[in-house]
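Incident log, support desk, overnight shift.

02:14 A customer reports that sequence design results differ from what the structure should imply. Their input is reproduced verbatim below. On-call engineer (initials T.W.) acknowledged and began investigating.
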């Protein structure tokens, strides 16, 4: 158990996540004591105490305290963190802000180290991705354009590491038709309210959208065709996802509706790993599904893999990458394992200490980056998650003309993304900042978030409420 005592509540969030990054398998508790003599006091499991202080000006107190805490923990553990004290999920957003402000690459790298202890190689990666993102985003109309997300919260089975708002299809089989009807109702409302806007990208995700039958996919995609204009559409993605949900009939339905990009996500090409994490398919089925998608005519296929899955070492990742190289996907997304509270797997299930986790993840990520380069796939978007193993990141690699526009948009938060479905999160970018809804302090925001309820049955029962809530801000 690690105990954190903070002089002010404003220090607890960063202190907690810095400690969890260094000690992912340890339980960490926080409390606030205004009478404490130090801004942050940490009591480690071995009885050692750390005191984080700063002598800087008031405006620098929090950042300098974070750096002071980080520097002491790095010295104690002997293990630096790739992203230093950054706790946010969008490090490229910081790089983009500096790029747009006219900064030079070298200035950003120095600033990233001095202000957050970001390692040079990660700062370079963030900057180069921001440069690629900016070129793609220049094609978009932020004010009049928007993107559409459609959520299908069903999977053939739930993977042990997963915390998304999805459930096994068997549990909801009798509700799927009603869910699709309800989803179409929400989509009709969105289409009507957005008819004067320019739809740039559509992303059907989940869950696993191909858990729907061919008939249900036809109904959903036909409805989208009927209600939304494609005049300004640049990209249409469907996460085919699990190979055990893909059939020739479903692929033909998807292809017939002009989908430009699909994902087939093995996560690993090691059968022992697929069995361990609850994937109900074989390595051979991954290859068969991929070949079938190519035969159906898809020329933009993404594949997802996860670094750091239990029981895997660098040689397993090398073999997975070798098999994927033979298939030649158009893009490859490399995730670092993140264990969240809602997942069945826990960090202690990995049976690794901090240094071992870091070394294995670092080796896997380096090998993936090298393999992507050999496949002529270049990094185009990056994001991080809380509780990510080894404090690393998720990176999308793609051929020059096959980068996922929607993925970039959801990271940079420059364009509104209107989301439909159970658990779907709408993010509306406002032209002018407004007082933050529900905030007692005078904070301003340019981003309004609207969350749909996660439970499938609640979404069906409360769809009118979901539509009404969305209508308050669409378009504000």
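02:41 Re-run completed on a clean worker. Output:
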């Amino acid at each position: 158990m690690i105990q954190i005592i903070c002089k002010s509540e404003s220090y607890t969030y960063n202190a907690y996540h810095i400690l969890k990054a260094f000690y992912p398998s340890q339980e960490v508790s926080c409390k606030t004591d205004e009478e404490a003599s130090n801004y942050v006091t940490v009591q480690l499991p071995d009885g050692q105490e750390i005191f984080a202080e700063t002598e800087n000006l008031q405006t620098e107190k929090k950042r300098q305290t974070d750096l002071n805490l980080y520097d002491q923990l790095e010295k104690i553990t002997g293990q630096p963190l790739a992203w230093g004290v950054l706790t946010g999920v969008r490090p490229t957003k910081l790089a983009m802000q500096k790029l747009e402000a006219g900064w030079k690459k070298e200035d950003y790298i120095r600033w990233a180290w001095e202000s957050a202890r970001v390692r040079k190689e990660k700062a370079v990666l963030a900057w180069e991705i921001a440069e690629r993102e900016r070129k793609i985003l220049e094609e978009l109309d932020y004010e009049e354009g928007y993107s559409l997300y459609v959520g299908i919260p069903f999977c053939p089975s739930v993977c042990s590491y997963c915390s998304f708002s999805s459930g096994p299809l068997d549990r909801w089989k009798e509700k799927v038709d009603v869910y699709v009807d309800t989803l179409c109702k929400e989509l009709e409302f969105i289409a009507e309210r957005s008819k004067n806007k320019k739809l740039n990208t559509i992303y059907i995700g989940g869950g696993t959208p191909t858990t729907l039958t061919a008939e249900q996919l036809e109904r959903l995609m036909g409805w989208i065709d009927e209600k939304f204009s494609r005049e300004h559409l640049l990209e249409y993605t469907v996460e085919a996802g699990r190979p055990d949900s893909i059939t020739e009939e479903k692929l033909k339905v998807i292809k017939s509706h002009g989908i430009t990009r699909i994902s087939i996500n093995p996560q690993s090409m090691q059968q022992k790993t697929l069995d361990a994490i609850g994937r109900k398919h074989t390595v051979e089925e991954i290859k068969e599904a991929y070949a079938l998608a190519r035969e159906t005519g898809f020329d933009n296929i993404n594949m997802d893999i996860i670094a750091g899955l239990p029981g895997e070492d660098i040689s397993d990742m090398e073999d997975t990458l070798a098999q994927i190289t033979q298939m030649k996907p158009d893009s490859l997304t490399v995730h670092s394992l993140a264990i969240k509270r809602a997942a069945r797997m826990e960090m202690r299930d990995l049976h690794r200490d901090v240094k071992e986790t870091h070394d294995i993840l670092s080796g896997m990520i380096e090998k993936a980056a090298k393999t992507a380069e050999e496949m002529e796939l270049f990094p185009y978007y990056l994001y991080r998650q809380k509780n990510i193993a080894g404090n690393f990141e998720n990176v999308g690699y793609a051929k020059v003309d096959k980068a996922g526009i929607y993925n970039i948009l959801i990271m940079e938060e420059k364009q509104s993304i209107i989301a439909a479905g159970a658990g779907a999160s709408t993010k509306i970018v406002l032209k002018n900042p407004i007082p933050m809804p529900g905030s007692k302090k005078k904070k301003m925001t340019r981003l309004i978030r609207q969350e749909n309820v996660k439970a499938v049955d609640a979404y069906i029962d409360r769809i009118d409420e979901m539509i009404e809530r969305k209508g308050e801000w669409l378009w504000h």
